[in-house]
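Still learning. Any example?
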Amino acid sequence: MSQSNALLRAQPDGATNRDSDATSQTRRRVSRKPFVAVGAAAALAIGWGTISHVRVAGEAQQTQQASRDRTPVLRVAPAELRAGPVKLRVPGQTLAFESARLFARATGYIAERRVDIGSRVKKGDLLALISAPDLDHQLAQARAQLVQYNAQTAQARAQVEVSRANSTLANVTYGRTKTLADKGWETLQNLDTNYASTQTQQANVANAQAGVAVAEANAKAQEATVERLKQLTEFERVVAPFDGVITSRNIEIGDLVNADSAGASMFSIARDDLLRIQSYVPQSNAIDLHSGIEARVTLPETPDRQWPGHIARDAVALDASSRSLLVEVDVPNENHELRPGLFVNVELLTPRATPGVIVPAEAIVFNKAGLRVATVDADNRIRFRQIVIARDFGSEAEVTGGLSGGERIVLNPPADLKEGQLARLPDGAPPAAGKVSQR
């Protein structure tokens, strides 16, 4: 150990420094190797990303160019020019052409009931009979009083004749007395007395005539009472006011009914040989409606069966809350196939003043440019047309402006469809021109 130390101490200082420098350089070279590797990897990644980005951008440009250059296959339908009537379908309900609720006008007990619900009756048929003995006695009393008043009228007229005779006698007596008094054979006192007697008898005649007027007025008033009671007794027979069917019955034999009662009616009757169908038509279609327009009525349960009718009347003014017009369609129903109270569909055939262009609803495009349709011209180029919807029928619409009929309309046009773009049509596509339809 001592020898080794001696040898180390014996080496010169320069050799020791050289060994130290070599060791430091070696250490520096070893420490740089990780950084070089990381840098190389980063450069490789950047290069690969740049190449991929350029490739993706090129593919995107190629895709966009292909999208611009592609020719889409489009489904088309012709714009139909219709000259036939406009078919407007609205819901409605059936109502009896006439209906009435029958109440008692005489107080009494139900003695007979001859009909029930569903019974068909004719005008004037007896439905029920009311027993009202009090009313019958009142009528008998009124008739007896009428006889009494007529007798009083006869007495008053006889009294007029008596008064006239007395007046005539008084006038004759006064004339004789005056002749005698003028010759001095009668006193003036008797003359004045006879003159007063004539005036009294004239007043008696006027009084008797007034008595006749009073008696006649009493007799006429009693006649009115008799007629009123007679009419009330006729109401003991409850009869049908018109031909129809009994739709409700609220009485039984023995029930007490009161005249002019505000309670339940005895019967309800409906005339159903002619029905009125009530429907509400929106404002957009109400302008063209008028009486006489043809209509067809169908039931949801039997859609293949139709009942013809016509608009008979309308409310003229639109309902302010719904902006719709109430119309009534009269439908003959002699076979009683339809019943009052049914929900029905009403198809109104409104005539057109001029032919209208009809397009499918799926062809209408609405965006910032407004309402438009895409058409395919004779060169198979896309041409957009501005339109205005005149009538909306749900699956199709009648439009004005931009179309004249016969154009090929694109169905469900793609959002990226451009003006002037070339389009391809499938086999069997309609030609570029059409004709007027009478539908």
